[in-house]
Structure formats: structure tokens, C-alpha cells
Protein: ABC transporter substrate-binding protein
Amino acid sequence: MKKLLAILLGGTMVLHAGLALAAGTVRIGALFSVTGPASFLGEPEKNTLEMLVKDINSKGGVKGTKLELVVYDTQGDSTKAKQLVNKLIKNDKVVAIVGPSTTGDTMAIIEDVEKAGIPLVSCAAGIKITEPVKKWVFKTPANDHVAAEKIFNYMATKKQKSIALLTVSDAFGSSGREQLKTLAKQKGFTIVADEVYGPKDTDMTPQLTKIKGAKPDAIICWGTNPGPAVVTRNVKQLGLKIPLYQSHGVASKKYIELAGADNAEGVLLPAGKLAIYDKLKPSDPQQKVLREYDQSYRKNYNVEASTFGGYAYDAFLMITDAIKKGATTPEQIRSNIEQSKKLVGVSGVFTMSPADHNGLDLSAFEMVRITKGDWELAR
Structure:
């Protein structure tokens, strides 16, 4: 936290002329799935932002300028997200927006922020959020094709060549499925089964039974909880001995809790380094940031920090770093974010450009294995 505070407190800030706020205050908006099926994403994101704002303001703000945070709960509903983003833009007159938590909610509001000219730093992973590049839209989770490539590279070392896909039929799952199929072809993997499940499905045994018959070397499940946890339990119930890979969309202890530690034993997935920061080399550029974030989060909320909260941390870091460099308007904040170079965050080391509004590569992930209800580096 000290490192983050040093970054945030190191610059000046001037209010955007359109803001009807008290002198010395700037307003940042946020849209998170605080309740509903995706609350495991939105709750730590909301907690993280509130923690950061409270900390900064307790130190006098950013060079004397206090931050005001306006958070709305989308409940994972794209229609509600669209209503709320317009409230943030038109009523609250924010200079930048963090979130939403999900790919679907994010895609629903892109047109609104682009039209209004307000920078959006999404906490969702779908590649379509930033590819093709939109002028006002960025995101902090690594693109799903990066996570997919991390899985395939690891599978290659285990000589697993035939794979079964089991993906959720929402925006995140559809994007992941598309990337997995494209990369599988490029890297010489054979897809022997391609199954889909619904976001609200509670039993995936029919799909897994078909997959069992296809005899793949491995299964890749792509989704966010609770679906992947159901899949994990079903795999155990069916007695399948096929290696199970999950996406980065379940890289939190909530997944292990929902699936059950015994059921999740041996499951592999690409995860941000926060999950295993205590196992990183001291020379890793993220190690200090990760440790300080986790310690601060534990102190404030009595629970370990999650990768998902880290997405909000990084979004806030980008916005405040842009302001520190002299940005005084939404356009200047957007421009400075786009010029971010080697910005060390929770999700990775970000280097943006006009052609890349995500700024992360394969180094953002480590392959991890679940062992006895915890993470370990997969070797």
C-alpha cells in the first residue's frame, strides 16, 4: 500500500471544468456486480476501490485534492449497466469509470462511454472489449487469448494433444471458446469434443458424459463461477481421470470453496501472480506490490485479496497515474493511460499503446495447480 500511496500522492490534479463538485474534489465512477451471480467478482472490486479511496483521502488526497467514489451495482444485468453508466456520466459527471465486472456488462456500455468521451477501464477479460481498439476503453485483466495460450503451452509440455472444450454460453465463455478454437488449430491441438453449458445450469453430467466418450487427453472448462465449480464436482462424481483445466475466470479461493477442496484437487489454471506471490522470486517486479495489496486487504476485510479485486486496483492505479502526470480532463486521462509504460500492478506490468488497450502479455499469468485447497506453481 505504501508503494501505491507514493504513486498516487506524487502528482497534481485540476478539476474538469464540467464537474459541479466542492473545490478540491474529483469524482470517479464505478460499475460492479456487487450482488447477483457475479458478486464474487464485484464485491472484492468494490472493496478494493473503497479501501484505496479511503487511504488516499486519509493522507490528504492527491496533492490536496480529495477523491469521491460513486459505485453502482449492476447485479450482472447488462440493461441495468447501461442505465447506470448514463447516470454516472450525466448526473454524477465522473471523469473516469472503473468496471464493469463482466464482459457482457462491459460490451453493453461501450457505445455510451465512447459517445460521451469518458475513459472506461474495465475489470472484465473478454478480448472483444479492447479488440478492435476503442478510443475510450481499456481493461486490466489479460486478454483471454493470453490465458488460453498459457494453458496450451503448458499442455504441450505434458504431451496432451487431444482436448475437449466445455464453455459457458455467455460473453466470457463465447469469447474464450473462439480463442481456444483458433489457438488449438494454430498450435496443432485436436478438439475431439466441443460442449456448451448455460450460465444457470446446475448439472453438466450430460456434456461430460459425451466428453468421456471422446477420450480426450484433457478437458478445458471456460467460465466464471458457479458453473466451473459445478463442472469440477461433476467430473469427480463421474470418476473421470482426465486432467481438468479451468480458465483464469475462477482464479480465487471462492472457486475452491464452491467446488470443494477434494473435488478441485489437481485442477490446473492460469492465474495472476497474486495467488502465489509468496512463491515468487524477490526479484519479480510485482512481488512487492502484490504483498502490500494483500496485506492491506486482509487488514481491512479480514480475508485475503483476490485476483478480481486486483483488476479494480489496477484500473484505479492507471487513472490516478494518468492524473499524476498532469491530466486534468477525461481526454487527457485517456491519453495518459494509453501512454502507460511498464506500470507495475496486481495483474501484471502494463505497457499500453494506441494499438493495445490491455498492455499485458504471457508474463501476466502463472500456471497453478490446486493442492490441498491452496495454490501451488504447476511444473
